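Following the same procedure, sequence and fold were stored together, as reproduced here:

>
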Amino acid sequence: MSSTRTLIRGGLVVTAADEIHADVLIEDGRIAALAAHGSAVAEGWTADRIIDASNKYVIPGGVDAHTHMELPFGGTSASDTFETGTRAAAWGGTTTIVDFAVQSVGHALREGLDAWYAKADGNCAIDYGFHMILSDVNESSLKEMDRLVEEGITSFKLFMAYPGVFYSDDGQILRAMQRSATNGGLIMMHAENGIAIDVLVEQALAQGRTDPRYHGEVRQVLLEAEATHRAIQLARVAGAPLYVVHVSADEAVAELAAARDKGLNVFGETCPQYLFLSTDNLAEPNFEGAKYVCSTPLRPREHQAALWRGLRTNDLQVVSTDHCPFCFSGQKELGRGDFSKIPNGLPGVENRMDLLHQAVLDGHITRRRWIEIACATPARMFGLYPKKGTIAPGADADVVIYDPHAEQTLSVETHHMNVDYSAYEGKRITGQVETVLSRGEVVIDQREFTGRAGHGQYTPRGTCQYLN
């Protein structure tokens, strides 16, 4: 097979570590070399395809480490398939997702994992990996964890929420953490006190408080903070690392910060919805608030400052989407008259990179921190670096040409996610993805989709690269 070479010329290469005006040479799907723009080395390069990136950023493709394509939930299923969801991700400058395979109670991990392999196989436009959701911690599933780590499924999600569905009690959580302490896996935690929340849900419904805004009121900040604290203490007892997903509240960030100040291997992720949306959205009239029902829930606006601060101080390390879309019509509407029946989840896989670029312009984070929290750290956290998450010789040529000056308005009319609303409808932002390469293949070309289902490859992962 003949070698193919692509040259990206004249852009500002932005990684988590550097910003340099450099030309990027790509050969056979990988980054071959970087050289200063205009240098003798760069001028000597020839290529089959030359991409002009003048006045643009050249950044690593985004790594979204928290998505739920085709997830069955609450009697329905997430509206994005692996095909539509990964295509939308590409449009938004994300070139790798790590999705969640689900173990059903009474079934083996392997059975759940194989079902997810089958859903994704041949359907993805970009590369993908899997985490494993543990819904049934017992002797046999604990043994299976070891085998999965060897296979490149190196992270396991447990839920302190959703009794009767995904919930694990403290004893099960401790056992899984003990296992991960020996096999090198990373426990991911949905930290909310689901047992207490269920009491508050029942009481709210009995009092006739059925609107979507009560979803946020019953899932109280204190119950996220309490569960975060408890998860950290259980991880300390087990001697295991811990990654807390979708952190939404000031008090939960404080628990993570306190643990990290002690030198513990505790990590935190937040999502764009907590940074840009709030309980004001949940309170929108005519059941519109249902569009914004997710767990952990949106919080009062004043929590946003603590989340941005956490991202600046590295008490939060990653921004993922928790992309789990349900259409307003026919899916979210299942909860009319009972907020507890609204499927939990928001669409966002296409918006993350753009929203975080807007955060750079708004002064919340720096350009390099944008790449760090959206590309490099998730790749390191989940054993994909330096293959993913950076632009360096030997890395996969997952590269985005990003126009930092283009203006766009986020809308259901223009997005590519398979869902009938945008959580950011009408939001005007500056910055837009122009061209995207996945392993050297152009999948978005000047705002035209040129990719295909089946280009994306399953990517086994190493273990977390932050463990000391």
About this structure: The CA atoms of residues 163 and 198 lie 8 Å apart. The chain has 14 helices and 18 strands. The mean pLDDT is 97.
